[in-house]
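Work Package 4 report. The design task specified in the project plan requires that, given a folded chain encoded as structure tokens, an amino acid be chosen for each position. We show below one input record used in the internal validation round.
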């Protein structure tokens, strides 16, 4: 895979805001004069929307068909989900983050189920990498949700 080192560094670095905000929430700290819940929520929405956008690009590379159409629809559903999370805001953070958690899980499942077509036959190591990132992100969501209850 081209740029594997860059992809790995960016992927793991992308976990830092999730983990920092979740840790701050557990420790009852603020971050940048904002609540860690709000920081977590907004970052999660951005990343979910970004990952949804990657499906749009993959769908354009595929021949027309059910898989391509499904990826385009899922891409838009994830972007709209992220927007809805922001609209729900801190007042309804638990439902918003539960929706995001489900979105991340669905995205990961789609990548695994359609890896040969969606990800261009990337190796199993990349799929494990994405699974690891998704598990950490989902665990961080669970931590923030439980802290918010």
């Amino acid at each position: 895979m081209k740029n594997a080192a860059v992809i790995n560094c960016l992927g793991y670095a992308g976990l830092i805001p999730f983990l920092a905000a979740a840790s701050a929430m557990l420790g009852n700290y603020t971050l940048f004069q904002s609540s860690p819940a709000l920081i977590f929520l907004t970052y999660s929405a951005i990343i979910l929307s970004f990952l949804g956008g990657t499906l749009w690009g993959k769908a354009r590379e595929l021949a027309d068909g059910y898989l391509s159409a499904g990826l385009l629809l899922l891409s838009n559903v994830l972007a709209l989900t992220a927007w809805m999370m922001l609209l729900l805001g801190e007042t309804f953070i638990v439902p918003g983050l539960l929706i995001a958690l489900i979105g991340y899980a669905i995205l990961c499942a789609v990548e695994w189920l359609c890896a040969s077509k969606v990800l261009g036959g990337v190796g199993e190591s990349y799929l494990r990498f994405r699974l690891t990132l998704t598990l950490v992100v989902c665990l961080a969501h669970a931590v923030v949700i439980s802290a918010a209850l």
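The longest helix spans residues 36-61. Validation will be extended to a larger panel in the next phase.
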